Amino acid sequence: MDVIRKTPHDCSVRPNLTDYEQARAQFHWSDVPPLCAGMGPGRCNIAYAAVDRHAEGPAATRTALRFVTDAGSDGAITTRDLSYSELGRLVRRFSGALRSLGIHRGNRVFTIMNRSPELYIAMLGALRNGSVVSPLFSAFGPEPIATRVSIGQADVLVTTRAIYERKIAKIRDRLPSVRHVVVVDDGKAGGAPPGTLNFWECLDAADENAPIEPTAADDPALLHFTSGTTGTPKGAIHVHGAVAMHYVTGLYALDLHPDDTYWCTADPGWVTGTSYGIISPLLHGVTSIVDEAEFDARRWYQILQDQGVSVWYTAPTAIRMLIKAGPELPAQYRFPRLRFIASVGEPLNPEAVWWGKRVLGLPIHDNWWQTETGGIMIANTPAFDIKPGSMGRPLPGVDAYIVRHNDDDTTEVVDEPDVEGELALKPGWPSMFRGYLGAEERYRNSFANGLYLTGDLAKKDADGYFWFVGRKDDVIKSAGHLIGPFEVESALTDHPAVAEAAVIGIPDPTVGEMVKAFVTLKNGVVADEDLRLELLGHARKRLGAAVAPKDIEFVDALPHTSSGKIMRRLLKARELGLPEGDTSTIERQPDHRAEGVPS
Ligand code: ATP
Ligand code: MG
């Protein structure tokens, strides 16, 4: 099997993690540097560690967030910077503003905004105030907003005038828990719509030296809704103590160094965009790029080049879109500062890892985690070779297992390598979720034999690398075989004509389920019967007749969640003429310029 070997030449700076085995053996969560020592004994607050600590320290004048604004009429990309001290001042003010509105520790602040400075100020300010923050994706329509706000019993909504007028005003009377709506005026008109408060007026009137709420590590900090890939989204509760995880994973999985320019392409409406788009980079005092616009291949290459991005954290769906756009585009750009690329959110096909090496000069480091884990668990790191197609190995401080569920309802750890089973984690890492809001039984059912069950199927090889097989719900049972969609999709995306593939099982009286693939093609490739037959043959050669798809259908696009994941359950429901279920997170056409970016 092809392995991408790491050599000293791969690293223009010395990685934070060099000896994986030793780091794992010696690691204790209690050894993580105290990030909130300045708050006094027993205190912990994410905003303190991420912002206050730097705003008064040596990083004060460094750029914390660089917003890349939409191109002007001349096509030029402009930027606006917030230094750590400026961000600190605004975050202090926002926490003061909330306090003067009677919003305190434990109250819930929901944000529904595009990626503008106000979103970051509001989220960090609310954390600093001890309030529980729930960032909602700005492209949600009124119904998904109403559902989540009701589940979360929001006390405050922070949004923009455009979103308020289009989506929230009409459902306001269905949101009785909401005491205040704070609105950022998008510059179209002054003041604030009736029944709302103006963001900047609140900020200007607030105390710039508002004291931080003395929260503790176990106090709730964030409420994140899952992507809804497999069903109705769940609200996962996270605590301030998670900050230790965001710090350690920024160090080991993203290899952040203080002089990095870092770009996480995820929207803060999803957990990646908060944990690694806001918290982790600020903890490390780096400069983060925030792109305010939606995905565009040319623009993304331009940002990587012009902003001198050194560490880039993105997602398979974005990588597939860049691949689809063709090789001519990246050939027009240079990325001399880029030194580390990582990806999360979906399985990363081996071909995408190689594409990174070929086109950007660097392999892509896949890593695995989920909303519930709050931080990266399994990763390819600078410290070891990459086996393309593998998610990597558990980070120091994380214990991951493959488990088998027996007929007598017991769950046991599988010791032999290369056996498929459910991926399970030993609780104890700091960013572990503390519950699903309003679904205690579901939370309890996520544990067995002292382990947290992730709902994903995987296998572990003899070298300790984990390989994703599929979600429990997506696995196909055909003629006695268990088929993971990822393996089949990877074989198809391996073909030069294929951009993206999604595989489902169709009920079949003879074999149980028949494997069917939906395929999108790269730009310029013509979909015809010859190509279909060629792809069927290609897959059969790679996978064998038992696993290869029996049917391939060409489609213009696959259904994705707005966080960029392929929704196989929707393909299946459509194919079988069944109800589509919860579609609140499905990716829709952007209805304002900052929406629709994959995370
Ligand atoms: P829901 O739980 O509502 O169905 P979701 O599981 O997609 O949605 P997230 O928490 O955003 O919501 O996604 C986590 C899931 O994404 C993981 O459980 C896994 O299935 C998938 N995933 C994330 N990273 C990877 C990866 N590197 N390889 C394979 N799958 C991944
Ligand atoms: Mg999930």
UniProtKB/TrEMBL annotation:
Keyword Protein biosynthesis: no
GO cellular component: cytosol
Residue ranges of domain AMP-binding enzyme C-terminal in the record: 487-565
Record InterPro entries: AMP-bd_C (IPR025110), AMP-bd_C_sf (IPR045851), AMP-binding_CS (IPR020845), AMP-dep_synth/lig_dom (IPR000873), ANL_N_sf (IPR042099)
SUPFAM superfamilies registered for this protein in UniProt: Acetyl-CoA synthetase-like
Ranges where the AMP-dependent synthetase/ligase domain occurs: 62-437
Gene Ontology annotations of biological process type: acetyl-CoA biosynthetic process
GO molecular function: acetate-CoA ligase activity; ATP binding
Keyword ATP-binding applies: yes
Keywords: Acetylation, ATP-binding, Ligase, Nucleotide-binding
The EC number(s) this enzyme carries: 6.2.1.1
Region (Disordered): 578-599
Gene3D superfamilies noted in UniProt: 3.30.300.30, N-terminal domain of ligase-like
Basic and acidic residues: compositionally biased ranges: 588-599
One Pfam family here: AMP-binding
Name of the protein: acetate--CoA ligase
Source species of the chain: Mycobacterium terramassiliense
Species classification: Bacteria, Bacillati, Actinomycetota, Actinomycetes, Mycobacteriales
